[in-house]
Design goal:
The chain is an alpha+beta fold. It has 2 domains: 6-94, no CATH class; 98-208, Aminopeptidase. It is 31% helix and 31% strand. Strands 1-2-4-3-11-5-10-9-8-7-6 form an 11-stranded mixed beta sheet, sandwiched between helices. α7 links the parallel β9 (171-178) and β10.
Length: 242
């Protein structure tokens, strides 16, 4: 059985398919003329170590890969740098494996965790007022998102997560925020698993993204039962495209 749902693998395959510009045993580069302007190149380093790259024909011409080259990740990144092409946004992508989804769906609901609605506006506003601006910006948790769950303690909302369908797909992107004084108490794990369970029952695949240097978020992904799918990088606005 496949590790991840076909919904996930099929989504990413829409970017990494078509004419193969270069391929060796661990590195494959595709040409995709349908890529958006701000995503003229994408790099996906799979959890297995395999590297997939997709780029527009114009960018491929700027990089000038040759079939006879022995391309390594180090060489490729250095070549991008030399040609003024910068990758940024390096995010880890996490999803539930098929086995872990079955475990999640069999779990009982937690009494302290529930779905939030527009009727919880006052509760959510108080929650936001207690969090720092930086935490709010980083988490991107909104009450008007497609799905919102929270954990309550001491008659207040102390942790909240929200999801929205990502890029028009069946992947539900997750944001999570716990008030500083309530961290380390298991609230985030319970909320993430509860909202993920609800998303799965609605036919969506929970997606957890975080920057590669965000150790607390990486730890939360792991303890919540997610499996690393890969590291995703896209074109930086600082790039020089000829």
């Amino acid at each position: 059985m496949a590790l991840f749902s076909p919904i996930i693998t099929d989504f990413w395959q829409t970017f990494f398919q078509g004419e193969i510009l270069y391929q060796n045993e661990y590195f494959t580069c595709f040409i995709n003329p349908a890529l958006k302007e701000d995503e003229q190149i994408m790099m996906l380093t799979m959890g297995t170590g395999q590297i997939l790259v997709t780029m527009t024909p114009a960018l491929a011409g700027q990089i000038q890969l040759a079939p006879q080259q022995n391309v390594t990740e180090q060489w490729f990144r250095q070549t991008l740098q030399e040609r003024g092409i910068v990758l940024h946004g390096a995010d880890y992508l996490y999803y539930f494996s098929e086995d872990d989804k079955r475990i999640l769906l069999q779990e009982n609901e937690q009494e302290s965790v529930r779905q939030l609605t527009k009727e919880d506006k006052a509760l959510f506003t108080e929650f936001e007022s207690t969090a720092s601006e930086q935490d709010l910006d980083d988490a991107y948790v909104e009450l008007d998102h497609w799905l919102v769950f929270g954990s309550l303690a001491q008659n207040r909302l102390v942790c909240a997560a929200s999801m929205y369908p990502w890029r028009g797909s069946l992947m539900a992107d997750t944001g999570i925020l716990t008030l500083a004084s309530f961290r380390g108490q298991g609230h985030a794990r319970k909320v993430v698993r509860a909202i993920s369970r609800c998303a799965l029952r609605k036919g969506y695949e929970p997606q957890y993204r975080c920057q590669v240097d965000n150790e607390p978020s990486i730890a939360l992904a792991k303890v919540s039962g997610f499996t690393l799918f890969g590291k995703w990088e896209v074109l930086s606005p600082d790039s020089v495209i000829s």
